[in-house]
Amino acid sequence: MLSKNLLRKLDIQDIAIFLSLYQTHNARKSADLLSVSPPTVSYSLKRLRSCLGDELFVRESTGLMPTARAVHIEPYLRSAMEAINRSAEAGPASEDETLPLELCVPEAFELLLMPKLMLAALACTPHRILHIEKLKEKLPTEGLLAGKVDLLCVPGPGAYFQLHPELERQPLFEDRFVCLAKGNTPRQITVDEYCDALHVYPSPWQSPRNMVDMWLEQLGHSRKVVAWSSNYQSCLNMLEELPCMMMLPETLLGTLRIPPGVQVHQPPLGCPNFTFDMVWAPGSDSPGRRWLRQQLLRICEQDARLTRSV
C-alpha cells in the first residue's frame, strides 16, 4: 500500500525519468537516453514535484541539480526500480544466488572472517560474489534501508554507534581490548599511566574516536594521540620505533605481526569490552542475505578464537 494517495499518480516512467535526471542533470539528455520526448520529461518532472512536494531539481550553471529531498529519496527510488527490473528477469531464487552481496565492514572483519566467508562463497553453485566497502564514521543507514547494502558490521552493543530503529542487530562474538607497548614483561596498565602515554590510533572504520575515548571522558580523562593510521599493522610497526601505546582487539593478536620488543599488556581496569555485531534491514531481506548471516554465525561458532555472544 502507498502511504500517500498522491503517490498513486506516479508510474514507472516517472521514476526512470527522476533517476536519469539525477544522473545526467540534463532534461534533453535524459529524454534521449529514455527514448521519450523532452515535453514528456517536463510533464513527468512536474508530476513528480506535485506528488513529492518538492522542487527536486533546480537549474544551476552546471545543469539540473538535485535538492536535499531528491538526494534523500534517490536510494529508495533506485531500489524500487532495481526490484522492478529483477521481477522481469529470472526466477528469484536463481537470480539471488548470482547477485553480488554488498558488505560494509571494518578491518577486523576482513582479517578474522573474510577468508572463511570467501571459502563458503566459492563453494556455492554458482559462486557468490562479495563486495566489501570500508566502514566509515557515518553508517550507511540509507543504503541498508534502501537495499543497496546487504550487511553492516560494527562494534557493539550500540553505545558508540546509534542504530536506526528499523535495523536489526545480532552479536557475532565478544571481544576485549589489549594494550601494546614496548616492554619485557606483561603487566596491568593503570589509567594514569595510559593517559600520560603517547598513543598511535588505528582507525579502521575512519572515525576520529572510539569507545575507549568515550570511556575515558566518563572518567574525566583523555589520551594523547600522536599518529593515526587506517590499519592495525601499520600502527604496530610504529610501536617498534616510537615510545607509544596502542589499543588492539584481542582476537586480532593471532592475525598480525607483533614487532620484536613490543609486549601485550592488560588494559586499565574498567576498560570496556565489546561485541562485534552484524546489522541488516529486515524489510529488504532475501535468501542471499539470510545465507550471509547464517555463514557468519557458523564461522564464529567454529572458530576457537571467537566467543559467541549470548
Automatic annotation (TrEMBL):
Q: Which CDD domains match?
A: PBP2_Nitroaromatics_like
UniProt xrefs under InterPro entries: LysR-type_TF, LysR_HTH_N, LysR_subst-bd, WH-like_DNA-bd_sf, WH_DNA-bd_sf, YidZ_PBP2
Q: Where are the membrane-spanning stretches?
A: none
Q: Which Gene3D superfamilies match?
A: Periplasmic binding protein-like II (3.40.190.10), Winged helix-like DNA-binding domain superfamily/Winged helix DNA-binding domain (1.10.10.10)
Any one Gene Ontology MF annotation carried by this entry is: DNA binding
Q: Name the domain of life.
A: Bacteria
Q: Which UniProt keywords apply?
A: DNA-binding, Transcription, Transcription regulation
Protein family membership: Belongs to the LysR transcriptional regulatory family.
Q: What is this protein called?
A: Transcriptional regulator, LysR family
